[in-house]
């Protein structure tokens, strides 16, 4: 997740306390891996509502104009792709008991950043909109952030931090979640009709910006190294295209489980 880390953690923890948390859940996560969860579906939804309200209160919301139209257009296509059952099945997204109340906000800030909270609460900062080259690159970012919500990463992070505490172990786990969000995001944007190669282009440009001496863009916080990220994305792009083509041609239906990994 990629708002300022300190702001997001404070908002999530505050919302977690307000929502009240159960004793925890466990389940199979994305990629069919074991995934401990701290929150029930209803608690996760309430967490997103509370944290979203808190974050929006800290920024000026852009109410109308081309930036709002653009974020809404791209976000809606990503949200629609979430409903594709074969995609859910192959990535093993556990969504059957979860409710998504999709909301899209543009926040006035120079942060090169975006986020999606549990329950589908999306925020995009104007600083990001100033540098994305096209809708495909914006879709890459939004799909990545939506992937965190679909994979219940906030709930998992709370569960892991209860178990392990903070520090290097927690940081390493964050990076695994970021790689997972990259993976899900590439397939999600492709199924939404966007060019997945633009994900490679965007993240490469972000890393180049940092190497040229710019302050680390917030959106790169806790992400895998640039070389590893690009290697993974380049591997997933043709697979996502092949999966989308098979789906469009009717070769993939919910009852059949062709691998998209």
Q: Would you mind describing this structure in some detail?
A:
The structure is a single chain. The radius of gyration is 17 Å and the shape is globular. Mean pLDDT is 83; it is low at 255-260. The two termini are 22 Å apart. It has one domain (5-248). It contains ten helices and six strands. Strands 3-4-6-5 form a four-stranded mixed sheet. Helix 3 packs across helix 6, helix 6 packs across helix 8 and helix 6 crosses helix 9 (197-211). Strand 1 (25-28) and strand 2 form a beta hairpin. With 261 residues, the chain is an alpha+beta fold.
What's the structural blueprint in terms of helices and strands?
Elements: H1 5-19, E1 25-28, E2 34-37, H2 41-56, E3 60-62, H3 66-82, H4 85-91, E4 103-108, E5 114-117, E6 121-125, H5 126-129, H6 135-150, H7 153-164, H8 168-191, H9 197-211, H10 226-248
Parallel strand pairs: 4-6
Antiparallel strand pairs: 1-2, 3-4, 5-6
Helix pairs in contact: 1-2, 3-6, 6-8, 6-9, 7-8, 8-10, 9-10
* Rg on CA atoms, Å: 17 Å
Assembly form of the protein = single chain
Task: Please count the helical segments.
Answer: 10
For the biggest sheet, the summary is:
4 strands, mixed
Range of strand content: 5-15%
Helical content band: 55-70%
Output the helix-strand order. Answer: HEEHEHHEEEHHHHHH
Judged by helices, strands and strand pairing, the structural class is alpha+beta
Mean pLDDT: 83
Numbering strands along the chain, what is their spatial order in the largest sheet? 3-4-6-5
Total beta strand runs: 6
Overall spatial form? globular
Distance between the termini: 22 Å
Unreliable runs: 255-260
* Tally of domains: 1
